[in-house]
Structure of YnfA family protein:
Amino acid sequence: MTVLRSLLLFVLAALAEIGGAWLVWQGWREHRGLWWIAGGVLALGAYGFVATFQPDPNFGRILAAYGGVFVAGSLLWAVVLDGFRPDRWDLTGAAVCLLGVAVIMYAPRGT
């Protein structure tokens, strides 16, 4: 159950951070206005809180592992919302990052 909770928190964190950054991008670069930017800032703040609910107590480990989730999640976000078509190297890189997440977060550790 702890691994499932952790994975769900990573997904939620990815939605908050990637979504927040996308809203800021849309507000500023696509001239959609300050409300989009404000929504993005709130979502980015929510990301910071979501990360604190991870069961592992080590900030550095959580943030390092989340980096891999962010890579894969960003590509997926781009596919769904921006019509981006990743090539095999994008997909390979994302798979390597997710493998890194699994090793960092879920490999057995000695006491």
